[in-house]
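User: I'm preparing a small set of examples for a lab meeting where we compare how different chains pack in three dimensions. I only have the primary sequence for this one, and I'd like the structure in token form so I can line it up with the others. Please keep the answer compact; I'll paste it straight into my notes.
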Amino acid sequence: MKRKRRKLAAIICALTLALSSAVPVSACTPPLKPPSVEIPDITFQPDDALKEAISNAAKNWIEKCILATPTVDYAGYTHLSQVTVEKIPYVESENSAGGTTVTIG
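Assistant: Understood. Below is the structure token output for the 105-residue chain.
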């Protein structure tokens, strides 16, 4: 009989402790209702000057970083004293959309 009372008292204490800590938290927390913001569709069409600037920047980067012949004086992973990369063929042609097609290789 004493064991049942102790067990019942322990259960009641545990429930009281759990409810007393959970109820104030839910009472103080406001409901989360984020504002509804409509994001418009944005279409960007660069003008001819910007398109030309981007094209020139890409062409200059390709010529400088890819088509130039880089040379490595020393490669530590082999016994080579010099490594040379061959130049890659590069052909430009006008396409039907009014742009430039670049063929590499």
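A couple of notes for your slides: Helices lie at 2-28, 48-67. DSSP finds two helices and four strands in the chain.

User: Perfect, thanks.
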